[in-house]
Structures are given as structure tokens and as C-alpha cells.
Write a structure and sequence with these properties.
The complex is a heterodimer of chains A (96) and B (306).
Chain A (H helix, E strand, L loop, with lengths): L7 E5 L4 H11 L7 E4 L8 E5 L4 H10 L4 E5 L2 H19 L1
Antiparallel strand pairs in A: 1-3, 1-4, 2-3
Chain B lengths: L12 H14 L4 E8 L5 E7 L7 E6 L6 H17 L4 H7 L3 E5 L4 H9 L52 H13 L2 E9 L3 E4 L11 H19 L4 E4 H4 L7 H7 L4 E7 L14 H21 L3
Parallel strand pairs in B: 3-4, 3-5, 5-8, 6-7
Antiparallel strand pairs in B: 1-2, 2-4, 6-8
Helix pairs in contact in B: 2-9, 6-9
The chains are: A alpha+beta (96), B alpha/beta (306).
Chain lengths: 96, 306
Amino acid sequence: QRLFVGDQVIRINAESEEQIQLLQALETQEEWELEFWRRPVSTGLPVDVRVPRGSLEPVRSYLLAHDLPFSVLISNLQELLNEEKAEMERNQKLEL
Amino acid sequence: STRSINFAAYHTLDTIYSWMDSLVAQHPGLVTKEEVGRSYEGRPMYVLKFSTGSDRPAIWIDTGIHAREWVSQATGVWTANKIATDYGSDASLTSLLNSMDLYLLIVANPDGYVYTHTRDRMWRKTRSVNPGSACRGVDPNRNWDAGFGGPGASTNPCSDSYHGPAAHSEVEVKNVVDLITSHGNFKSFISVHAYSQLLMYPYGYSCSHVPDQPELDSVGRAAAQKLASLYGTSYRVGNICNIIYPASGGSIDWSYDAGIKYSFALELRDTGRYGFLLPASQIVPTASETWLALKHIMEHVRDHPY
């Protein structure tokens, strides 16, 4: 099963068209293996992106270097998935 | 035999399918489970049909065409139960089902859904093999014959928005297309997604307004108001292209172009921090508020025959 240990989901609130374009450039950056849950479209909509653990540092540097305001939505994706799985298992036992 | 189910929990495909049988058993005069075809990996695709008579116009609702959007499928389960249990006691729903049929496809992408339970919780697409590529799957909401291959869809099989080799190449899409086409009397087509809190209407493949834009916008805004009346959840309303981004090959663009005027897509709630991982405790609140919007749309469809 695919694991997401240490992966983070980051929310970026672009404040200008120029920042949207910077984020769109990130979409084509294959090396960091980013997964956009919500793509950069306009300043009115937040951008959510899953960042693999190994790419956290360069992505954060990129965002800071371009004054892109961001916050961490999910600090460790795998922890949330583990909780979800445990809850499902508890529920299945109850139903049985 | 009947099976109870916890609506405030996420469930496997087998559990959902098994529960469907129970729902049918409990409401034999109202609900039937029909196989609309098989998925790429051979899993049955079951639609619940709510019907009280023959030769009726119909409403279509599908949930979870994107596998990882679990609150969509869970909302489908809750909604099916709501419809079955409220029939006969809710006057408006009763009158609706006395004049129209309702089809509910709870798991529109069964292979992908199973894959999210067993291999990759973040999987979105189908599981079909792409010849010449190591990457599998097609985005089933870029695969419809509506501006197919246009903006907002990828030609790369490794992309999450890969449109596939041809329109309706995905059997999961083709099964629905065949059912809708052969039926010939659907008046509304609603697709349920998660998690951006949107209520959308066509088009996604073009940013031009559809002829029915004023009416669809008005219905959508009223539906979003009804939804917000329960917990204050705020939805944006508009056409796909302008409210998010151009996206070709989408299901409701196809249905609209096929003559189904009341075509809508919903993106259900997040609580701001979870995305595709909305906690199970949020399923019932999400489904409850969504029901108010769905009901408003369906009532409008009932009251505005065309």
C-alpha cells in the first residue's frame, strides 16, 4: 500500500496574477512530484498541494523566495490516513 | 436478510453493495438495484432506481466518479436511505417520486474506489491500462464526448486529468452514456464530487454561456441557499469554466448537450483542513446539507417540465 509518511498538504493563497503564474510554473516542475489538489487558477481560490516529504524543503524555499503566503493544512498525511483506517476497522468490528 | 450500516462511517465497495440489497429488501415497492454494466476490472456497477410507476421522466445522480472523494460515495449511501425512508412521509419527495423516477449511482468508479481502499488512498482515476505507458487510469470526468480532448484535460496518461484515448473509452463512462441514451427521458443529471464547495452548471469545455444559463444560475443559487440554511456552509455557484477553470470532457457538459437541461455538478464540503480526507464524523452533516440542495433542484425539475 502506498504510504505518505511525512507528506504535507500546503495551502497557498496567491495575492496577484504574478503569484498565480509562479504557482502554475510549479505545476510543470516534475522533479518535486507535487500533487495539486486544487490548481492555481485565480487569486480568489486557494491552491492546495500535496508535497512529498523529500520535496518539502525546496518547495518551502520557493514559496518564501517569492513571498507566496502559505499554511500547512495537513502536517503528516499518513497520520491522517492511519486514523481513517483505524476508524474504519473499528466500525467494521462494531457492524459485525 | 437485512444489514444495518453506520452512515457516519466510510465503507468498502462490498459493504455498500451488500447494504444496497438490504435497502431494496426493506423498500420492495420503491427501490430496485440494477446492474448498468461492468467496470474495466469486471466489477458490477449498480444503480439504485427509485420508482413508483412506469414510463416516467427521470433524474440521474451519480456520486464518486473520482475515487478518492470518499465523502461523495458516503453521501450517496446516506441519500439513498433518506429517499427510501422519507417517501410516504415527506410530501414533496413523495409527489416527486409519484411523477418521476430517480436513478442513483453511488459508486460511479468502482475499480478506483477499491484501489483507494487497498493500494493508494489518493487515487482519482479509473484503473484501465494505457497501452505504451506504465501509468494506468483515465480521468473519467474528462472522458465524456463534450469538447473531448480540449482545454483542462491532459494528453499524458500519467496525469490525474488524462482524458483517455477517445471519448467514452472508459467503460464506466460508456455504461452511463448507454443507459441515459437508451432511456431517453432524463430531465436532470447531477454529478457529486468533493471538496471545493461549489455548485456548477455547464459548460466546462467552453467559457461561453449556455442558453439556459439564467435559469440554471437561479436554480443553483437557490439550491446553495437551501444548503447553507443548515450549517452555514458557503458554496460558490456558476458555470464550470468561470468558477474553477476550463475542463473539457466533463459529464454534465455531455448531459446538457444531450438535451438534459438541468445538469449540475456539486463539490461537497471540506471543513477547511482535510481535502479528500474529510473525517467520517462529517459525513452525515455533509449529506444532510447536500440533500437540501439536491431536493431543491429536483423539485424545480418536477415543477418545470420541458
